Structures are given as C-alpha cells and as structure tokens.
C-alpha cells in the first residue's frame, strides 16, 4: 500500500493538472501498446492476405494492376498509421499540460505570499518545488512517448517499403 500512497501523495502535491496529465498518459500508453500489439499480432496476417490478394492476379503489369497495387499499399499504410497522429498529439500536449500545472502552482505560491508576506523563504521554496512537479511529469511522459512514437513510425516506414517490395509487378 505504500506504493499507492506514494503515488497518491505525488498527485496531491502536484495539483489538479497532474490528474489530467495522468489521464493523458494512460491514453497515450494504451494507444502505444495497441500499436505494438497490432504490429506483433495482426499485421503479419494482414500482410499475408495483401500478398495473396496480389499474387492471385494474373495481370500485374497493366496500368489498372498498378493502381490496384498502389491501393493495397495505401490500405496497408492507413492500417499501420492508425492512431499514430493521436499519439503524436498526446505527446505534444503533455509538456504543455505540465507547464500549465507549473503556472497555476506558481500563481498559488504568489497568492500565499501576498496573504502571508515574503518572510518564510522555506515555505516559498516548497511551493515552487511542488509547482514544478507537473512540468517534470509532462516532460518525462513526453520523452518516453517520443521514443515509442519514433519506433512505430520507423516500423510503418520499413513495413511499407517491405510490402512494396513483396508486391512485385513484373
């Protein structure tokens, strides 16, 4: 229970924006895990179906056949890129939400300083410290998300080129 208590304490100290960052992080990781599972579980069978669809064609050199080949590749790209734009958007939102949390936390610190005066530097430092927690959380989530986002983008690029090579038109 101490781990859960530590997380609850961290969320309490970070402020309300930290709950929003937590929600965005959960959505982000669900989308990343879904994409990783898609490439591990679903994509191989889809690729086989697309290759079989192409191989069953007798005509592979006419203009119509090349359009069909391009349609297969485009369908694959759409399936592979599904959710990637949302992942990128959530990664971009995380640091901004963290900055919002820091700004609102600093406003709270200045409100307390206006009421109580500036005599207690230790209390002010603690307030500033807790105000920066959302920025740290947003940055950590964004940096980790960037790694996996780039990994997924590289897989899409590699697999689309590999699929184009497998769909031979001569």
Outline:
With 170 residues, the protein is mostly helical. It contains six helices and no strands. The protein has helices at 2-14, 16-55, 63-81, 84-116, 121-131, 133-166.
Question: What labels describe this entry?
Answer:
single chain; 170 residues; mainly alpha; 6 helices; 0% strand; rod-shaped
Descriptive report:
This protein has 170 residues and is mostly helical. The chain contains 6 helices and no strands. The longest helix has 40 residues, at 16-55.
Low-confidence stretches: none
The counted number of beta strands is 0
Order of helices and strands: HHHHHH
Structural class: mainly alpha
Strand content: under 5%
Distance between the termini: 64 Å
Helix content: over 70%
Overall shape: rod-shaped
**Largest sheet report:** none
Average pLDDT metric? 91
Tally of helical runs? 6
Rounded radius of gyration (Å): 24 Å
Topology diagram in text:
Elements: H1 2-14, H2 16-55, H3 63-81, H4 84-116, H5 121-131, H6 133-166
């Amino acid at each position: 229970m101490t781990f859960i208590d530590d997380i609850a304490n961290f969320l309490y100290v970070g402020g309300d924006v930290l709950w929003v960052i937590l929600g965005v992080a959960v959505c982000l990781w669900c989308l990343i895990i879904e994409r990783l599972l898609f490439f591990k579980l679903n994509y191989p069978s889809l690729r086989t179906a697309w290759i079989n669809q192409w191989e069953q064609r007798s005509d592979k050199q006419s203009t119509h056949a090349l359009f069909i080949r391009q349609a297969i590749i485009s369908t694959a790209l759409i399936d592979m890129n599904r959710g990637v734009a949302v992942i990128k958007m959530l990664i971009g939102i995380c640091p901004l939400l963290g900055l919002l949390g820091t700004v609102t936390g600093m406003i709270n610190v200045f409100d307390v300083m206006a009421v109580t005066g500036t005599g207690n530097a230790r209390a002010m430092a603690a307030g500033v410290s807790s105000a920066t927690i959302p920025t740290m959380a947003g940055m950590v989530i964004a940096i980790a998300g960037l790694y996996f986002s780039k990994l997924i983008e590289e897989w899409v690029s590699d697999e689309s080129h590999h699929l184009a090579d497998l769909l031979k038109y001569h």
